[in-house]
């Protein structure tokens, strides 16, 4: 199956040990992007993937005409706002650059985190579909730099701050609790929505090996 290296592949290693006792071998192929895992699942190259949340899955299916479905909700990873050239939000300067993911669902999540910190203000009804066009107040004239989520940790030396997905932050050696200047509230709409899922191609939900994997993960 396909998975992001951290923490997904690490979690799957534990599940693999459980499955081995039932004579089921779990082979994990690690991917560092958010596109290929879904494509290889759709093509049948792998049986399942584990890296994404529901809104991303829905958006991906719609844009790519794929037929992927969730079979289980596994865990939640908070987004964090990490320091780059500027080390404290107290030193936020006019015109500062903040890097955010460029895919629709994760960018909305990043914008909501920035709004929660008072850095920007979004339209009241923007919710988890927010885009840059929903910014109604930007008192520091922040420049939002959109880029592929996997690249965000590498940009910290070039921007003032970056909002980074939990798995990519962990892969880069960052801890949300220790290194982030701000993280999503555990009671926020995002926390309730963005649980990471175990995903298969539609029609494979009841395969015995998939059911065994769900049991091992949950």
From TrEMBL:
<dbReference type="Pfam" id="PF03180">
    <property type="entry name" value="Lipoprotein_9"/>
</dbReference>
<keyword id="KW-0472">Membrane</keyword>
<keyword id="KW-0564">Palmitate</keyword>
<dbReference type="InterPro" id="IPR004872">
    <property type="entry name" value="Lipoprotein_NlpA"/>
</dbReference>
<keyword id="KW-0449">Lipoprotein</keyword>
<protein>
    <submittedName>
        <fullName>D-methionine-binding lipoprotein MetQ</fullName>
    </submittedName>
</protein>
<dbReference type="GO" id="GO:0016020">
    <property type="term" value="C:membrane"/>
</dbReference>
<keyword id="KW-0732">Signal</keyword>
């Amino acid at each position: 199956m396909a998975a992001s290296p951290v923490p997904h592949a690490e979690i799957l290693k534990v599940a693999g040990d459980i499955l081995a006792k039932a004579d089921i071998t779990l082979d994990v192929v690690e991917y560092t992007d958010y596109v290929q895992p879904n494509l290889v699942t759709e093509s049948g190259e792998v049986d399942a993937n584990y890296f994404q949340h529901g809104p991303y899955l829905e958006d991906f299916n719609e844009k790519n005409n794929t037929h992927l479905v969730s079979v289980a909700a596994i865990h939640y990873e908070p987004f964090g706002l990490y320091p780059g050239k500027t080390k404290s939000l107290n030193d936020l300067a006019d015109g500062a650059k903040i890097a955010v993911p460029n895919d629709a669902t994760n960018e909305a999540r990043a914008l909501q985190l920035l709004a929660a910190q008072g850095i920007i203000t979004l339209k009241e009804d923007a919710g988890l579909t927010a885009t840059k066009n929903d910014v109604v107040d930007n008192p520091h004239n922040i420049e939002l730099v959109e880029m592929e989520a996997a690249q965000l940790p590498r940009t910290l030396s070039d921007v003032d701050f970056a909002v980074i997905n939990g798995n990519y932050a962990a892969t880069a050696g960052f801890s949300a609790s220790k290194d982030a200047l701000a993280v999503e509230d555990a009671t926020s709409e995002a926390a309730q929505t963005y649980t990471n899922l175990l995903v298969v191609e539609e029609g494979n939900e009841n395969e015995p090996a998939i059911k065994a994997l769900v049991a091992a993960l949950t």
